[in-house]
Write a structure and sequence with these properties.
Mean pLDDT: 88
Keywords: DNA-binding, Transcription, Transcription regulation
InterPro entries: GAF-like_dom_sf, HTH_MetabolicPath_Reg, Tscrpt_reg_IclR_C, Tscrpt_reg_IclR_N, WH-like_DNA-bd_sf, WH_DNA-bd_sf
Oligomer: single chain
Strand order of the largest sheet: 5-4-3-8-7-6
Largest sheet: 6 strands, antiparallel
Shape: elongated
Protein name: IclR family transcriptional regulator
Pfam families: HTH_IclR (PF09339), IclR_C (PF01614)
Structural class: alpha+beta
Length: 255
C-alpha cells in the first residue's frame, strides 16, 4: 500500500492549527508552530486559500479557516470560534443562574450541543457535549428556527416527533411560537421535550448581526418557571446579557 501523502498531511496540520486557535495566525507563526519552512507553509496556505479552505485578512495578512469548510457538514469554524468566545460567559451564566448552561448550533436537522456547563451544585449530571437535541422541542432549537438558521419547512416535512403532550408538532402553533420568539428576543420550552424539565434560550449573533447559535439555561420546571409556567424574569435577564456579551465578542453590533 502507498504511504501517506506528505503535502496532504501538512495541509491537514495547518487546518488543525488554525481550527485550534482563537485568533488569526501569520505565516511565520504557522511555519514555526509546525516546523515548516516559510516557503513550504506559504505554498500550502495559498493552495488552501484557492479552494476557500483558508482566508487571509487583507489588512493584516494573517490566516484563518475559510468559508468553504462551513459546507462540509459540521460548520467547524463557527463551532470552534463560538465555543472559544462563549466559555467564560457560559461559566458566569451558570454561576449567576444556578442552572445548567448549553450552547447549540445546527447540525443535520438537529441542535448540536457544543458546550455544556454543569449546574453549580453537587448533584450527579451527565455531560451533553455532542448530544443532538430536537429543533422543535428544545429552547435552543426553537431560537435557531425563529431566526432562520434552520428552515422550518424542512422540519415540518420530516413530521416532527411528539415527545410529550406539550410538544409543538403542528405548523400553526410552531409558527406562532417562533413569531413570539422574534418579538421577545428569547425562547422557551416548558416540558416539551421531557416532563418536569424546562429551558430558555437566546440567540447569539456574529458579524453582520446574523444568528450563528444559541445559548440556553435549563433545569427543573419549578426552578426555571413560576407557578403559572412562565420563565422567571431574572433568568431571562441574565441569559440575554450573556448572549449579548458573546455576540459582541463575535463582532456583532449592539442589538
Amino acid at each position: 500500500m502507498a504511504g501517506p501523502v506528505q503535502s496532504i498531511e501538512r495541509a491537514a496540520a495547518i487546518l488543525r492549527l488554525l481550527a485550534g486557535g482563537s485568533r488569526r495566525m501569520g505565516l511565520g507563526e504557522v511555519a514555526s508552530s509546525l516546523g515548516l519552512a516559510k516557503g513550504t507553509a506559504h505554498g500550502i496556505l495559498r493552495t488552501l486559500q484557492h479552494v476557500d479552505f483558508v482566508e487571509q485578512d487583507p489588512a493584516t495578512g494573517k490566516y484563518q479557516l475559510g468559508a468553504a469548510l462551513l459546507h462540509l457538514g459540521t460548520s467547524y469554524l463557527d463551532v470552534n470560534e463560538l465555543r472559544s468566545r462563549s466559555i467564560n460567559w457560559a461559566d458566569a451564566l451558570a454561576a449567576r443562574s444556578g442552572e445548567a448552561v448549553r450552547l447549540g448550533t445546527p447540525l443535520e436537522g438537529k441542535v448540536l450541543v457544543i458546550h455544556h456547563v454543569f449546574r453549580p451544585d453537587d448533584t450527579l449530571q451527565t455531560l451533553d457535549v455532542g448530544a443532538l437535541l430536537p429543533l422543535h422541542a428544545s429552547s435552543l432549537g426553537k431560537v435557531l428556527l425563529a431566526y432562520g438558521v434552520v428552515p422550518v419547512d424542512a422540519l415540518m416535512e420530516a413530521a416532527p416527533e411528539s415527545y410529550t403532550r406539550h410538544t409543538l408538532v403542528h405548523r400553526e402553533e410552531l409558527n406562532r411560537a417562533l413569531g413570539e420568539i422574534r418579538d421577545l428576543g428569547w425562547g422557551a420550552e416548558v416540558q416539551e421535550m421531557s416532563m418536569g424539565e424546562a429551558g430558555i434560550a437566546a440567540p447569539i449573533r456574529g458579524q453582520g448581526g446574523l444568528v450563528v447559535g444559541a445559548i440556553g439555561v435549563s433545569g427543573a420546571v419549578e426552578r426555571i418557571c413560576d407557578t403559572k409556567g412562565r420563565p422567571q424574569p431574572a433568568l431571562i435577564t441574565v441569559l440575554r446579557e450573556a448572549a449579548r456579551a458573546i455576540s459582541r465578542d463575535l463582532g456583532a453590533a449592539r442589538w
